[in-house]
Amino acid sequence: MHVYRSHTCADLRLADVGQNVRLSGWVHRIRDHGGVLFIDLRDHYGMTQVLADSDSAAFSDIEKLRAEFCIRIEGEVKARDASLVNPKLPTGEIEVYVRSMDVLGAADELPLPVFGEPDYPEETRLTYRFLDLRREGLHDNMMLRSNVVRSMRQRMWETGFTEFQTPIITASSPEGARDFLVPSRLHPGKFYALPQAPQQFKQLIMVSGFDKYFQIAPCFRDEDPRADRSPTDFYQLDVEMSFVEQQDVFDAVAPVIAGVFEEFGDGRKVDAHESWPQIPFAEAMLKYGTDKPDLRNPIEMQVVSEHFRGSRFAIFAKLLENEGTEIRAIPAPGGGSRKFCDRMNAFAQAQGLPGMGYIFWKEEDTPFDSLSDEHQAEYIRVAEDQGISVNPAGTVSGAKKVLVGKGPLAKNIGPERTEAIRQQLNLGEGDAAFFLGGKPAQFEGVAAKARDQIGRELKLVDENRFAFAWIVDFPMYEADPETGKIDFSHNPFSMPQGGVEALSGDPFEVKGYQYDLSCNGYEILSGAIRNHKPEIMYRAFEIAGYPNSEVDKRFGGMVKAFKFGAPPHGGCAAGIDRIVMLLADEANIRQVIMFPMTQRAEDLLLSAPSDPTNVQLRELGLRIAPKE
């Protein structure tokens, strides 16, 4: 018999009754039933109930155990009484009577419990991550992550891709985030960088004549914290292909992503990858307020500016006199109550806005008393359009009622404008619409959050579904909101649509062959068809303020390679951490990373970042500047 175990804690069944076995694991829980001690013994594979009574030679030693002691037991497999069978455990029909027990590793008093899933402060959980990882939920997440990576790798090989590894220590490059710099001991005063992505290397692999590359790649970015993003490092499925157009990349990658979600989605519906829509960036921002829309929510925003232009609602009417402004409506089917509208108005205020205008529609027999003379005539026309006659007293004749808009906005703009909005949005009795105005860039972020909130509260979101969308036609350039400087809005190595000719006009009108894949409101993949021609690359970087000399200095290897027969190529990278987060139904990415940093980019377990020693600083030729 093996020195530590003959079986795992998930192996034993009724067929093993009578066998003498040896198990090793952790004390998950101890129960004292009056002279009989029961232990749930746990290892990586599962749980087995073991017991000892006063006749057992191990009884006195078992009495001294605490939760999370690591022990080895030897004993006899017995069948449980039918009334004591635990159907929730694969081993629930048996138990092991302990004849001997050894402590392999004693445990101090626990700083956090492992039994169950209590909500504990994150600082404690990350300081004692090795204990936190023993909990069933996190343990399952780590196994899910491992299996997802295995599945991705297998699917890529089966699709004809070849796996290569690229360097971890490299040169700094502008890819949208801050680099982690690494000082060089052999070259004092100079620095390497940890790669934000294997971008240049994977393109060079294509220039080198390899056709389809992939890698499960670690990437390093000095990021600001966010619930769906690690502040230091992450892993991605990195892909590149030669002699391809945008659709070729979609066709190669979509089945892999869809297959992973189907395999590990726990029965949830996965949209067929052939039907994933391709939504232009501008359309996504208009309809959803974001370039990573949650398509489980059917709500689509619409521009309704003309209904408020010149209206009596002065706030919107005056706003529309300014160039570049518009009014956008968020339909809310089923949200037609003042209570719900007030709640959403409070939501907008919590996001930093003065509020959010609304109209909700009800059927009613409305008297003229509450309407101005002008609006009385409008009311009659609206009623007639709905096939309803209004008598001279201002009330509806017959059993039908007029569908009218309610709320301050409706009262100000009048029945006809309100009815025109309703018809444009295709709303009816019991529905509502919310309104935001200004320059789109200033309110789209809040509009996107409001759309999501409305969809959740009205239960319009299909929670049992993974909904995907390709976002395409990204603008190549954007203006820095503070300085107005032109910069790349996406990947700087992307091919502009229209080639070099497109770069001779307004930079903000240039679109790139750039694309993202969104799933349930998260960006899970980003990519592009690459700029493989030196003359186009020089011009693209020149527009963003990089002279040719700077391009040669920063990307000399890439430029040089492009002068020796570079093939057209493109690819993408899918975020493994975020994909696993979606599959595990977690809201925080740290729940699917084995040893994550805090939001302040600190490793509480190993105390990183730490102070360097004076010897290390002297070797590197560095001096720490005093804090200001």
Your description of this structure?
With 628 residues, this protein is of the alpha+beta class. 29% of the residues lie in helices and 23% in strands. The chain is built from 16 helices and 24 strands. The strands form six sheets. The chain has an eight-stranded mixed β-sheet, sandwiched between helices. A five-stranded mixed beta barrel has the order 1-2-3-5-4. The mean pLDDT is 92.
**Anisotropy-based shape:** globular
**Averaged pLDDT, please?**
92
Number of helices: 16
Rounded to the nearest angstrom, the radius of gyration is 32 Å
User: What's the β-strand tally?
Assistant: 24
The helix-and-strand class reads: alpha+beta
Q: In percent, how helical is the residue content?
A: 25-40%
State the distance separating the first and last CA atoms.
65 Å
Largest sheet: 8 strands, mixed
Report strand %. 15-25%
Point out poorly predicted stretches: none
Within the largest sheet, what's the order of strands? 6-9-10-24-23-22-19-12
List the helices and strands and how they pair.
Elements: E1 20-32, E2 36-42, E3 47-53, H1 59-62, E4 70-79, E5 94-105, H2 122-127, H3 129-132, H4 136-158, E6 162-163, E7 180-183, E8 191-194, H5 199-207, E9 212-220, E10 233-242, H6 246-264, E11 269-270, E12 278-280, H7 281-288, E13 302-303, H8 314-319, E14 326-332, H9 338-350, E15 357-364, H10 373-385, E16 402-406, H11 408-425, E17 432-438, H12 440-457, E18 465-466, E19 468-472, E20 477-479, E21 486-488, E22 514-519, E23 522-529, H13 534-543, H14 548-562, E24 569-575, H15 576-583, H16 614-620
Parallel strand pairs: 3-5, 6-9, 11-18, 12-19
Antiparallel strand pairs: 1-2, 1-4, 2-3, 4-5, 7-8, 9-10, 10-24, 13-14, 14-17, 15-16, 15-17, 19-22, 20-21, 22-23, 23-24
